[in-house]
């Protein structure tokens, strides 16, 4: 998983749960294309 969240965490967000502050920061960071690309590359290593 690119952001490092577990399956249950995604399910909670889909059900309307608000992410924790740290997870929210990760989600906001991933909105930057360069940061997202870096995350993708780091999961492939």
Number of strands: 0
Largest sheet: none
Q: Total helix count?
A: 3
Shape: globular
* N-to-C series of helices and strands: HHH
Percent range for β-strand residues: under 5%
- Report how far apart the termini are: 13 Å
Low-pLDDT windows of residues: none
Short synopsis of the structure:
The protein is mostly helical. It is built from three helices and no strands.
Q: How does this structure look, described?
A:
The chain contains 3 helices and no strands. It is mainly α. The chain has a domain at 20-45. The model has no long low-confidence stretch (mean pLDDT 89).
Quick tags:
45 residues; mainly alpha; 67% helix; globular
SSE layout and pairings?
Layout: H1 7-14, H2 21-30, H3 33-44
